[in-house]
Amino acid sequence: MIVLGIESSCDETAAAILNEKKKILAETLLSQQEHKAFGGVVPELAARAHLEHIDEIIEECIEKSGVKIEDIDAIAATSGPGLIGGVLVGVMAAKAISLALNKPFIAVNHLEGHALAARQSNDVSFPYLLLLVSGGHCQILVVKGVGQYERLGTTIDDAAGEAFDKVAKMLGLGYPGGPMIEKMANKGNPNRFVLPRPMINSDDYDFSFSGLKTAVRKLVEAYSPDGNVAKAIINPEDTADICAAFQVAATECLVKKLEKAIKYFKTNYPEGKDLVVSGGVAANSFLRDNLRNLAHRNQLTFAAPPLQYCTDNGVMIAWAGLERFQKGLVDTLDFKPRPRWPLDEIRSE
Ligand code: KG4
Ligand code: ZN
After folding, report:
1. Which residues contact 39 (CB under 8 A, 6 or more apart)?
2. Rounded to whole angstroms, how far apart are CA atoms 88 and 105?
3. Among 14, 34, 129, 221, whose Cα sits 20 to 30 Å from the Cα of 146?
């Protein structure tokens, strides 16, 4: 069984070809550079760049795989949630190939792509507890099976990755912010600045990062002659200390709620063995180390995709497509891409 997966929901144009033995036959990925000057992804620029590159990304992937195009058994594409202009480009390409080859099209939910990615890279079985932390989402879920999710909690304002990106922007570190914050934080003192941990003790599994972001803004304002963050001049040492304080605060919020969720998971899913983290922020080593310790303290196995498969990529979409295909979950060509598409609205049969 060979599946082609296409990803184009944000600022990565990507494709991958996998087989049912979890083997990656080929992958291609283009990270759009068009957004760097804007400190965030500009949807219209993203859509145009996807349109310009999607054909070559897919062609190169097929060529590298050594697979004959007619030997591809199904074509999966991110069909939401995400920036709709980009999603449309990927879906139209996938539908065209599906029609030309007369092979099934599979509409993959981007979040399910992140959610199932660790099953491709690691030996993870259902049910498992998942922290999904990306630029657009921050959720704790029980993954019960393909298309079957119980959402325990979510962010009530910013996603974790969004907070990393906004803080990086205030500090003049560029986009995407997560990797730069991590790099600076490694050199910084996390105890010099005290930042809040919003909602850390609330009786739920939800998150809030907006107050943390505002607290960083207040710190940064003090470095500006007139309180305007854009004019702040911060030396590298202070930048590193702010980054370290922010990374620790954000991580603590995630770990504390997950610790609570583990109790629920163990009571309600006693057969579950794994704690998984995925999504772009899961590439953060400080967070990974803390979650690994949390898992071990609670007799769970820790699993996460390799770093390059935490951020958006074609492999996770091909893999989710393959898992759905194996269950007979194919879609028709009139499937309408969905800019918003919560995991609990995915088809599981
Ligand atoms: O999953 P992803 O590539 O796209 C979405 O589906 O949103 O996640 C991108 C997010 C960005 O906010 C980026 O800053 C964050 O993941 N990110 C990180 C790291 N690498 C990427 N955040 C913290 N530490 C990192 N090393
Ligand atoms: Zn993503």
Report:
1. 165, 169, 174, 175
2. 14
3. 14
Same domain, 138 and 207: yes
Nearest CA residue ID for atom 16, ligand 1: 280
Strands (E), 300-346: 301-303
pLDDT of res. 14: 98
Looking at residue 37, its pLDDT comes to 81
d(CA 103, CA 70): 9
> Among candidates 49, 50, 154, which has minimal Cα distance to 111?
154
Which token pair is 231? 């004019």
Whole-model pTM: value is: 0.97
Looking at residue 23, its pLDDT comes to 98
Output the ligand 1 site: residues, CB below 6 A. 10, 134-136, 161, 164-165, 176-179, 182, 279-281, 283-284, 311-312
Instruction: Point out the least confidently predicted range of 138-142, 203-207, 227-231.
Output: 227-231
Helices within 154-305 (DSSP H only): 160-170, 177-185, 210-221, 236-268, 285-297
Q: For residue 201, how many other CB atoms are within 10 A of its CB?
A: 8
Region 48-66 average pLDDT: 98
Residue 19 is predicted with a pLDDT of 98
On whether both 295 and 321 belong to a single domain, the answer is no
Cα dihedral 250/254/257/260 (nearest 10): -130
Q: Which amino acid is at 269?
A: Y
Q: What is the pLDDT of residue 38?
A: 85
Structural domain of 22: 2-114+309-345
Supply the CATH number for residue 24's domain.
Answer: 3.30.420.40
The predicted pLDDT at position 36 comes to 84
Q: What is the mean pLDDT of residues 21-25?
A: 98
